[in-house]
Hints:
The complex is a heterodimer of chains A (93) and B (395).
Chain A: E1 15-16, E2 33-37, H1 47-51, E3 57-59, E4 64-66, H2 76-80, E5 86-90
Antiparallel strand pairs in A: 2-5, 3-4
Chain B: E1 6-11, H1 12-23, E2 27-30, H2 37-48, E3 55-58, H3 62-74, E4 79-83, H4 85-90, H5 92-100, E5 106-111, H6 125-129, E6 136-140, H7 143-158, E7 166-171, E8 179-184, H8 187-194, E9 211-212, H9 221-233, H10 235-250, E10 257-260, E11 267-271, H11 275-288, E12 293-298, E13 300-302, H12 306-313, E14 318-323, H13 334-343, E15 351-357, H14 366-382, E16 389-391
Helix pairs in contact in B: 1-2, 1-7, 3-5, 7-10, 11-14
Amino acid sequence: MKLPGWKELVEIGPIILEPGNAREYKTGDWRTFRPEIDYSKCTTCLFCWLFCPDSAISFDGKRVEINYDYCKGCGICAAECPVKCITMKEEEK
Amino acid sequence: MKTTFKKIAIEGNEAAALAFKQVNPDVVAAYPITPSTEVVQKFSEYVANGEVDTEFVPVESEHSAMSACIGASAAGARVMTSTASQGLALMWEMLYIASSLRLPIVMTVANRALSAPINIHGDHSDSMGARDSGWIQIYSENVQEIYDNIFQAVRIAEDPQVRLPVMVNFDGFITSHSEEILEVLDDDLVRRFIGEYKPKYSLLDVDHPMTMGPLALFDSYFEFKVAQAYAIANSLPVIKKVGREFGDLTGRYYDLIEKYHTDDAEYIIVAMSSTCGTVREVVDELREKGEKVGLLKIRVFRPFPLEEISNALKNAKVVGILDRSIIPGSFSGPLYHEIVSGMYHLDKRPIFQPYVYGLGGRDITTEHIKNVFTQLQEIEKLGRPKNLIYIGVRE
């Protein structure tokens, strides 16, 4: 998403005219630790899917998947995983 | 064609209420406070008598008054309110939200001292405290100007190039409670001048849903604030244009500043609001004796009309700047700060002498003003300003 310069904001002010655009704001770059799933241990219990506060884990009917565009790396999924198949790995520059 | 207008005797606050009535705003949310009470009191009578179509919201505090005004204005209504002193102070956080959201709210402020000690009389501490809040600030010298400035404020605030709130100030008690002769405009003329308000953005526009004032963190907040600063700077030509148009209709022309005998003046006093009347009187008297003195009246303090002020003052020898508010811990009042720092880089500039006067409604007389002009001549001989001088205070 390209952020506007101030000259584009003089006329309109702090108003968003296109509703429902939160999806465009990718919060994944807030992350310092990255959850990674070891699918060989995963039992598809869906705890991570259920607990993720950002709805950044999806389930397609077969397996869970982390959307790194929105995952902020809070680690709740790793903490809740009953078989400990999610590890938090420090992000590298 | 010369138009004649009806003349009546009326107090400042009631003239403001009459202007509100003629504007007939969609919403007025207000809480009474001395010395501004009669604006709301009189207006609520107009509401009760069915003389206006306004939705009047009698709130429980000034914080709520400004909050309700913000909500109504964001919904697309034409909104007005009125306050003073502690009431304005209580609105504090909401003032910034109103201006940052670019909401064209018009508010009168009967300028009054801030506690403590408690005092109900006129000085500029309240509005000067709000000088960084992003509101346009217009100061009125007399009752007629209160009335005239309110109509112009509506036009300025709602101008599509501006869309900012406007504060119409006048001196508490000195002007708010003075009975003066007022030239009343016809309702039709007022309606034609202010026009119908067509909000550019409205939260009630369900066909175009929008978000106002969303979260903007370190990646966006700065851009929004710079944009806001440019928006208020852009209102200068609009304020001038509206003042000219108002003059064409009424014969009373308004500008950002008023120069009174400043063109050839060696000694100039800069003042705001009712004190300008006192200075004008003294300038007339001293001019008759051949003294080259003048008055610069600051009508619009925000946005600060630096270019006009610089041009009016740069050829004087000594300028006395009269502040009716005090900044404890600083070397002068706010008007002095703005003018002196704004003119610092000019090659040729006068000596500027800071004054603070009239706190808590303390009288400023023609004798005081004459004394200031005498001091300005002494300062010229001295070649530099003295420390801040307090006018009319006991030592």
